[in-house]
Structures are given as structure tokens and as C-alpha cells.
Amino acid sequence: MWVRNAWYVAGWSHEFAPGSIHARTLIDQPIALYRTADGGLVALEDRCCHRFAPLSLGRLEGDDLRCMYHGLKFAPDGRCIEIPGQKLIPQSACVRRYPVVMRGGWAWVWPGDAALADPAAIPSSLTLDDPGYRLKAGHLDYAAHYLLIDDNLLDLSHLSFAHEKTLGLDMPQWADNRPRMVDLERGLRVQRWIAGHTPRGFMRKKLGERVDVWNSYDFIFPGLFLQRTSFYPAGTAQQSGGGEPDQAPLFHRIDEQAVTPLSARASRYFYAAGARAGDIDPDRLDRLFAVTETAFGEDKALIEAQQKLIDLEPERRMLPTSLDAGPTRFRRLVDSLLASGGAPPLGVRSASP
Ligand code: FES
Ligand SMILES: [Fe+2]
User: Fold this and answer.
1) Ligand 1 close to Cβ of residue 50 (< 6 A)
2) CA 301 remoteness from chain centre
3) Measured CA angle at 189 (ends 124, 152), to 5 deg
4) How far, in Å, is the centroid of ligand 1 from the Cα of 79?
5) Distance (Å, rounded) from C-alpha 243 to C-alpha 119?
6) Which ligand sits nearest to residue 67's alpha carbon?
7) Among protein residues, the one whose CA lies closest to atom 1 of ligand 1
8) 270 HSE (CA, 13 A, CB side)
9) Which numbered atom of ligand 1 lies nearest the CA of 52?
10) 59 lines ligand 1 (CB under 6 A)
11) DSSP, res 298
12) Which residues of 294-319 are buried (b: 16+ CB within 10 A; e: fewer)?
């Protein structure tokens, strides 16, 4: 049911404040995370090997963690190093330690075979304090399977309808134009031009009456969405022959998101939005972010309601249309990752841009 051999975003790195034990669930596995004195992050199974009390209810003692039911103490590598009232510590007295890496603003956990965890497979993303950009971040919890959220991000035609009054405002082309897609090692690259867009408000003052918009994102298993939306003078789409532009944009919007499955009906959606530092001041960023969060509320309402209807009659088949190319292609990839235990299909290129 789950692809275990993959990197999952457990949270923003800044969520894991020193001095506390943070309980998280990833693909049905309870995990306790905490910082060591050197700032590193430790991820241990959140279940004491003695009588299964959660270690997240325990106590930090330096870099070690003590279970506060009967006092077994564990080192950051998961080994039990103290059993009250007993000198001999059996080798089996240990809890599982998960590989964990902080990169690109996120804490990534590998719930699968630790010997296969390669940090080089984590795609590059921005950090929230990157001086070249101004970004704001948040997260949202969904009562829905993560693949329904992935479907949503892989088919942006919904912007014209679900986000009619927010992100899709005045851009009906989202639903009309079909993006091109390229397979990546563990995902898809989705790109399109939206030519002849009429910006509104602040964007209109900044960019003029008409612009061409280049939208490009990589979508990588289990739900990493790395999007750049770049605004160009009208005519650039044609000059670029419909392909990727090679000049600097007038405005460059950033969206970086990660969908994390917690359980079959619970997912956490992490998001950051913003622009190049020179393109936006903090006040505009606040407004852009507020619209973005309103739009995410629109997605959540639809997707949670969709999940309820799916669960009412799980055997009912959906009607495929040409809008579904991205979700369909990605679900095929997920099936192949499930079948291979997480090994990517052969013959497709690596996800690094
Ligand atoms: S359950 Fe942890 S020490 Fe007993
Ligand atoms: Fe959406």
C-alpha cells in the first residue's frame, strides 16, 4: 500500500525546535523527532520496545531520549543504553532509527530500508531564508488520501473553476490549454505557455496590459511540487516557438509544496509561495500569500468532499477525460514504484533540473 523506499517531508525544519520531542506520523509509522546538541535531527520509532509507550511522551537527557513509562533510555542511534534495575541490556533492546536529512527548508525522513537511503535523491528546493527570494510558508491538514491532492496538482486546469475568484482569476486558459509533459525519474515535468494574459491590480501596474506567462513545474513522488511561473512581454511565447524561454522574466513567482501521506485518510500539505526578492515587497507578499491560502482552502473543501463520495461507493469508476493526462501518468508511476519497492522505472532522466 505504501512506497517505503522514498524520502518523505516530515515537516519544515524550523518546526523541530530544540529541547522538545516532536511526534509525527508518516505512511502509518509513528515517529519521534528531536534535535541533538549539534543541531542535527534524530528520527526514532515512536514506540518504546519495552511495552510500546510512545517515546514522544518521554524526556530528553542530552542527546538521549528516556521513555517516561518505566525509564528505558535510548541513544540517538536507537540503542537502549539503560534499563532501570537491570545491568544486562539485550541486543534486541532498541528502537528503529530512520534516516533523516534537513534540506531545502524541509526535514526529510526515509521510512524504508535505511541501507537504500541516498540523500542525493532529494530534489533541490529553496530554503525559506534564501536571500534571492521572499517566501512565506504554511501547512494544511487534509482528511483525504494523498493521491487525490497529487491529482489536483498534476491537473492545473482546475484553476479556472475551483479557483475562479482566486488563482484562476481572468486566466481561463488554464483549462483550455494542454501542457507538455516529460517523464522524470520519480515524477513528471509539466510546462505550458499562457499567452496574452491580462494582469490585474499591482501586476498590471508592474507588467503592463498584456503578458505571456510560462508555467513550469516538476512533480516528484510522493508529492513534491516545484513550480516557477514567469511573466514575459507579450509575444515571448511565439518568439520561443512554444518552448522554454531563455531570457530573464519580468516577474518570477515561486511555489514549492510537498504532499505527505500520514495515513490512508490523512495527509499534510506543506507550501511556500513568493517571488524573487526584487519583484515583491513584504506587503505584496502578504497579499499574494493570503490569496494563495484562500485558494488552498478551496482545494481542501473540494478534495475532502470528493474523498467522502469516493468512500461512499469505492467501486464506482471515474470518467476519464483529456484533462487527466498528468494524474494518469503519475499514478502509473506510483503503481510501478509500489511494484518495485521504490526503485524508479528504467530509462527516464533524473529529477534534477
Ligand atoms: S514502555 Fe517504555 S520503559 Fe516501559
Ligand atoms: Fe488548487
Assistant:
1) yes
2) 19
3) 100
4) 14
5) 32
6) 1
7) 51
8) 25
9) 1
10) no
11) H
12) ebbebbbebbeebbeeeeeeeeeeee
- Within 109-193, where are the H helices? 146-153, 173-176
Which contacts (CB < 8 Å, 24+ apart) does range 215-218 have?
215/156, 215/179, 215/191, 216/189, 216/190, 216/191, 216/192, 216/244, 217/189, 217/190, 217/191, 217/255, 218/123, 218/184, 218/187, 218/188, 218/189, 218/190, 218/351, 218/353
DSSP 76-123: TTSBEEEBTTBS---TT-B--EE-EEEETTEEEE--S-GGG--GGGSP
Please work out whether the CB of residue 202 comes within 6 Å of at least one atom of ligand 1.
no
| Beta pairing class for 41-45 and 266-276 | unpaired
Q: Which residues of the chain have pLDDT under 50?
A: 350-353
**In this structure, are residues 221 and 123 in contact, taking their beta carbons and an 8 Å threshold?**
no
Among residues 149, 176, 179, the alpha carbon closest in space to that of 160 is found at 176
pLDDT tens track for 82-117: 999 999 999 999 999 999 999 999 999 999 999 999
Task: List pLDDT tens digits, range 247-305.
Answer: 999 999 999 999 999 999 999 999 999 999 999 999 999 999 999 999 999 999 999 99
Length of the chain counted residue by residue: 353
At 201 the pLDDT is 82
User: CA nearest 226: which of 255, 204, 201?
Assistant: 255
Helix, strand, coil share (%) of the chain residues, nearest 5: 25, 35, 40
Q: Do residues 121 and 104 lie in contact, with contact meaning Cβ atoms separated by under 8 Å?
A: no
The SS3 call for residue 248 is: coil
Where do we find the cell 499534510?
Answer: 268
Closest CA to 274 of 157, 168, 155, 134: 134
Q: Which ligand is nearest to the CA of 53?
A: 1
